[in-house]
Predict the structure.
Amino acid sequence: MKRFKLFTAVAFVSAVVLLASCGRSKDDPGRVYMPDMAYSRAVESYALLDSAKFTNDPARLGKDEFIFYNSKPVEGTMRVGELEPFAAPLEDSAGGLYTISNATKNPMPPLTGQDSVETARLFNIYCGVCHGPKAGNNGPVSTKVGGVKNIVATSPTYSDGRLFHVITYGQGNMGSYASQLSRKQRWMIIQYIRTLEEKPAAGSTTSVAVAATGPSVVKADSTKKAN
Amino acid sequence: MSRYRKFFQTSLVSVLLIVIFSFSNSAVLAATGEELFKANCAACHKPDADMTGPMLKGARERAPNPEWAYKWVNNVNTMVETDPYAKKLLATWGSKMTQFNLPKDDIKAILDYADAYTPPPPPGGGTGAPAQDNSLLFGILTLILAVVAFILLQVNSSLKKLSDEKDGVFRSEPVPFYRNKAYLMTAVIVLFCFAGYKTTNALIGLGRMKDYQPKQPIYYSHKVHAGTNQINCLYCHSGAQDSKFSNIPSVNVCMNCHKSINKYEGPDELKLEDGTAVNGTAEIQKLYDYAGWNPASKKYDKPGKPIEWVKIHNLPDHVYFNHSQHVKVGKQQCQTCHGEIQEMGEVKQFSDLSMGWCINCHRESKVDFYNTKTGEGNKFYSIYEKFHDEMADSVRNKNGKMVENPHRLDSVTVEKIGGTECQKCHY
């Protein structure tokens, strides 16, 4: 009897140890020491909101016991250091008029020093992926996306406000970049495009070449738009 | 006498077992080399191929003398102007390596790791199998040795019994091994050590999620996007340079490209960690369902809903971490903390995000300190007058004469400007 007990004890202990030594699976986030210190009680970014307590429907604001929260800035407010909102709506492009856009002036001065380095960096990240680092249409995904416009071939005929409309609302295959670039950054990128334009003007042969490739690319893009 | 012998036997067995157990720790050295490599070098070097910098395999043999590499890592800035081989390297590679301040042992560990590096087998052929094989081997070895030791002890006691009988010494019937106190005690001690080790490790691991790799609602491959297609991390995670959080991109950012790209035609085979093939085109279709995009009419004509991605890198609420501080000011590569994300099909947590890991980096990383002479560096640091004094080439001695600064400060680490103060991250 005693022997049996000893055996059970040993077997039990080894089983416990073996179980404890098992690693956790890779989709198990594990445990924490102090949950009240590890998990925030305040609403954090990307936290799921309890639908029994919160609502994101502006129509219900202040009407029932729900807490209204839609993580958007309060209407009529602006972030510190951010520029005035763009006056032109998406519909400004109707009929190719762009009247409000064309009337909007670029609030950012031409780029100098550190600003031009920073804007070139932004351009390479957000625009260069399709349009190429020097707007040469040789970005890493430009052939995959297809129909990418040569910026510098068309931009001289576009006003700053018109370009801002394109970056803010998108055009053809291109989407809106308003969520990735602040208004200030978008205006700075337009200034940067203006510095890129100046280069072909130096050698007349290259500017002709750019002009020759320009329209065909535009055509490819406009067929996409018609679909 | 026999009592002493028994004691001797017991201690022999325990020592043997302890030695066997500590064997499994020999992998620690190799792991350190790998970790150091990933933390310091992996942004520009590969162990077995050229990248931004040359491959590290055989770096010591290529250098003019074996000690050259150790000198180079810590003296890049001076050697690049004086050393002929360094000048040649600069001419070949076009950019200067970042100067480090690593002890020689660490550099040796990194280069040893690179020399011994063998590329992992292609996915599907059982990734991670080698590591498991090793521990299994150690386990079997331990078991065999333990059985051999046990048999030898049994033989010894039988022989002793025989010789005692021959001598006419009376001995009581031997106790069976499972009631032998020496054996039991050894087993208990071994179990105690093993369970203690496991328990301690489990407790240290509480709240740490290294290798956490949950299943995401859409199979999104960072390897395809950031690796093959070279899309900058900040294209999607644009908030990392401006805010505390590195944002998870909203669906409209995906649709910037996927409006046109509706099929997967890339060169990489898409596979889950367990080797199951993934249909890339079907995954893009999932994205369209979330976005409410109709690829036939090229319009958003269905109600969209946000994608509930599973957040992998979680810090406890009592730790303050700011992405923009590290990405924009500290100019850290994403890969420093998140590993080689451009190689990951499914993302997993690369570092354990423990406090020791944070502190280590703060001790080693140098800030972009403002250089009063050249005007280079971050101007914010111009307010650290004491360090500027310590970094001066010459100082006034007791007699009022200018002499060469005997304790000239070379660089300023994050720790020196208060990067290891509790309140910097906990408040």
